[in-house]
Amino acid sequence: MPISSLPTRTPVVRLLDTDWSLTALAGPAPAHLRRLTVPATVPGSVHTDLLAAELIPDPYLDGNEQLLSWIGLTDWRYSTTFVWNPAGADRSELVFAGLDTIAEIELNGVLLGTTRNMHRSYTFDVGSRLKAGLNELVVVFRSPIKAADAASLELGYRPHVNHHPYNAIRKMACSFGWDWGIDTSTSGLWKPVTLVSWSTARLHAVRPIATVQTTTVQSTAGDTSSHSAGTVDVHVVISRATDAPVTVTASVAGVSRTLELAAGATSATVTLEVPEVDLWWPTGYGEHPLYDVVVTLHDADTAHELDRSHTRVGFRTVEFDTIPDDAGTPFTLVINGQSVFVRGANWIPDDAFPHRIDRARYQRRLEQAQFANINLIRVWGGGIFESDDFYDLCDEKGLLTWQDFLLACAAYAEEAPLGDEIEAEARENVARLAAHPSLVVLNGNNENLWGFEEWNWKLRLDGKTWGAGFYYDVFPAIVAELAPHIGYTPGSPFSPVAGSVRNDLHPNDPEHGTMHIWDLWNQRDYPDYRDYAPRFVAEFGWQGPPTWSTLTESIHDDPLTPESPGMLVHQKAMEGNVKLTDGLLPHLPLPNEIGAWHWAMSLNQATAISTAIEHFRSLAPHCMGSIVWQLNDCWPATSWAAVDGYGRPKPLLYAIKHAYADRLITVQPRGDGLAVIAVNDSAEPWSGELRVRRYTDAGVVLAEHAEQVTLPARSNATVPLPASVSATTDAAAELLRAELGGVRGHWFFAEARDSALSDSAPDVLAERTTTGYTVRVTAASLTRDLALLVDTVDPDALVDDMLVTLLPGESVLFTIDSVLDVDPAAFAAPTVLRSTNQLVRP
User: Fold this and answer.
1) Angle of the 651-659 helix axis to the 359-371 helix axis, nearest 10
2) What is the pLDDT of residue 231?
3) What are the backbone dihedrals phi and psi of residue 805, each rounded to the nearest 5 degrees, phi first?
4) Under which EC number(s) is this enzyme classified (predicted)?
5) What is the pLDDT of residue 187?
6) Global pTM exceeds 0.85
7) pLDDT tens digits, residue range 34-57?
8) What pLDDT sits at residue 498?
9) CA dist 625 to 339, 343, 583, Å?
């Protein structure tokens, strides 16, 4: 009998997502909320339940964050009732996919257990606790702030950033606030709760590991061809209610195999050999085919299907090239034998309340990453192990992913109970994520190796453990056991030595491995990015405000100023506004009007990151990756993000798009002069005439250099410029333009504030279309960084490009997606159509 026609007795999964209520218990809750019971949503959190009940203001608005600080100091009771009728199942289990964080679970008045870890799931056998008819389920959450404070004393003080000892409990670190994030310190059932009833046995875990072997054959004619064969080792763990023999069948790509598990056996590995597979490639390198892996569990005696699992895999190889060279130690990601220049962005939780992030929201954010030509997303270690939806979408889109283990900017106790929790969450999540072909890096921590060496931790620790055992022993052993096909690095930043995860190199040495660059922004100006010649930059960034519509929707100060009360609540960086000002003034005057201030800071953020990325890419293959801090935001704030907390793209996203384009022309200092670097990070050769002209700001050509260049795929070419072209006679009124095959790069000899930019108004023609509007802009004079801030007209509008530089008489056509019915001329207003010129000649 074919498997598909066999009778089934699969687990019955009941989602317990209705009839929940929330009650404040002990703590500083306002008098009118004490013992008040309100409806609750599961998955959810205390904040969002109180917000839905209209009992608190939106924590994202104005100064409400501080008004709601009592929530994290209060204990909370979630409760529900459900009807259960015995149906003959051998076993019933309550499964909590995510509890945030310090929880006590009771069923019908009996304590099932206590939990202290947001980052793992919990399963309780409740067969003997359920009763026919009505059952009551209660989850009491204790104050996470009080729990963290108490645990910090019990474990012994260990250094951390920010104001709460988040490193003492296993809660999302940024839930306690960060230098870009709101302090919610919330509690709740943040993932689903299910009641699972089953008989005989069920699939507890299915972990398919796909590997590939590629052979290259040369024909007698000298042609070469490659052939890839795949292997999928399907690791299966079952839970048993009886010792009856069972069978496990696994199939992929038309290949199927069945194993019998003897009475009492709980694990098996089914190996499937696939004679021919298509390789999974990252975006820009090829297609991203996925293969379905189906696993079924059957009763060996009755042939009843007991359980079924569906997973997807992709066939690819991952290596890090860290072979020392004359310049130090590279850190090059190699996929299927192909070196990849990482065009990355860091990712934080997309909402301070991560239960609100659904698949559609992940889809929108990852599409914005694709728009910006990003090929890798790094999931930062102060957030969460990202969801299956996130990783499924990255698999489909060919977006490489890098997942930090969740230890960030702090020292962590290695002893029990915290050490046991960290190991348990690591094992569960590595096993959960192992099948995803997009996941190519598992990273031990964020900045903890650096902190231990440089942030005076050694004195403060006074001999206590700090996490080294996790990074050098526990985590690499878990990865080797559960996901050997995924690369591991002990930390970011980290300086590798071939063949060993431990060494005496400084972890943030620019000559070795990965580094973070934060003296830029904190102490130094962004042109100084060019002082670095890193091998790989895993973090660097510059702040800017959210889009205007997000700013004014979330902050209602009157007057609204850079230092008005709500603005300061939404600026979490230490001396953030001071650094914004210090970083602007060398380049542009500081405006005294809030709209111009907003544009100036947005533009400066975009220019800073463009400067960095273009420099790093110009160094390839010496430097083989840059990961911008950061792609997204968790609430509406002034921050390093390219997409703000309400999901709107900032000018920075367009700057990243340009700087991360497959083909880039950039002008860089080299020696005593300038050079044009052509970057071809595409799969095809690029050749043509490189033409470099020095212009006056009136568009008059003063000097010219032309040269034929040919770039193989995935290569750079450096063209030194003769002094006749690169030496200016009037820095304030001259610029260089380099162009190859329609791709342009510019070099300005003077800072914008010192230039002779004109305030001549451009000619603008705005028209309605079937999907929105077009705006054609023709420059009357040299116009730098032309941008349409379309959200100021329609908060939901999107424009296809931004930050375009035009010589006099040149035009650009912007296309706007918008459903709002407005006079097209609204998009030509000077508060919408922005440029650098407006800031120099207001």
Assistant:
1) 50
2) 97
3) -105, 130
4) 3.2.1.25
5) 98
6) yes
7) 889 999 999 999 999 999 999 999
8) 72
9) 11, 6, 25
Q: In what order do the strands lie in the sheet with 291-299?
A: 255-261, 246-252, 291-299, 305-313
For residues 647 and 60, give the distance between their C-alpha atoms in angstroms, rounded to a whole number: 14
Q: What is the CATH number of the domain that holds 361?
A: 3.20.20.80
Q: Any residues with CB less than 8 A from the CB of 238 and at least 6 apart, and which?
A: 201, 202, 203, 204, 246, 248, 261, 266, 267, 297
Total number of domains in the chain: 5
Instruction: Count other C-beta atoms under 10 Å from residue 744's C-beta.
Output: 14
Residue 601 lies in a domain: no
Contacts (Cβ under 8 Å, ≥6 apart) of 558: none
Confidence at 501, pLDDT banded by 50, 70, 90: confident
pLDDT category at 280 given cuts 50, 70, 90 is: very high
Model confidence pLDDT, tens digit, residues 702-734 = 999 999 999 999 999 999 999 999 999 999 999
pLDDT average, residue stretch 249-275 = 96
For residue 218, the model assigns a pLDDT of 64
φ, ψ of residue 283 in degrees (nearest 5):
-55, 135
Regarding beta strands 763-768 and 12-15, do their DSSP bridges make them parallel or antiparallel, or are they unpaired? unpaired
Q: What is the dihedral of CA 471, 472, 474, 478, to 10 degrees?
A: 90
Q: Which residues span the domain enclosing 546?
A: 344-552+613-659
Q: How far is CA 653 from CA 91, 647, 649, in A?
A: 52, 12, 6
Task: Tell me the residue length of the chain.
Answer: 842
Sign of the torsion angle spanned by Cα atoms 484, 487, 492, 495: positive
Segment 651-671, tens digit of pLDDT: 999 999 999 999 999 999 999
The reply to whether omega before 165 is within 30° of 0 (cis) is no
Cβ atoms of 155 and 418 closer than 8 Å: yes
Same domain, yes or no: 371 and 450 = yes
Q: Are residues 41 and 184 in the same domain?
A: yes
What is the sign of the dihedral through the CA atoms of 688, 692, 698 and 701? negative
Pairwise CA distance, residues 759 & 79, whole Å: 64
